[in-house]
Specification:
71 residues, single chain, elongated, alpha/beta
């Protein structure tokens, strides 16, 4: 709630999000809306799926799935 308030107030200049997938990260619509409105100037997302959050990112970094990790 504190981060969301700071982002929506324009007090965050960049946000880095590790996105494990749409079912586990929770509600991220507020991040997408903040990026679209310009309230959040820079969004960096690391993930394995093309989600609305990833589509809104300025920088998109590849993540690794459990199938790609060494055992």
């Amino acid at each position: 709630a504190v981060l969301r308030a700071a982002v929506e107030a324009g007090r965050v200049s960049a946000l880095y999000v590790i996105d494990p997938g749409p079912a586990t990260l929770g509600d991220v619509d507020w991040i997408v809306k903040a990026r679209a409105s310009g309230t959040l100037p820079i969004l960096v997302v690391q993930g394995v799926l093309m989600t609305p959050l990833a589509a809104a990112a300025d920088v998109l970094l590849a993540g690794a799935t459990s199938a790609e990790m060494p055992r």
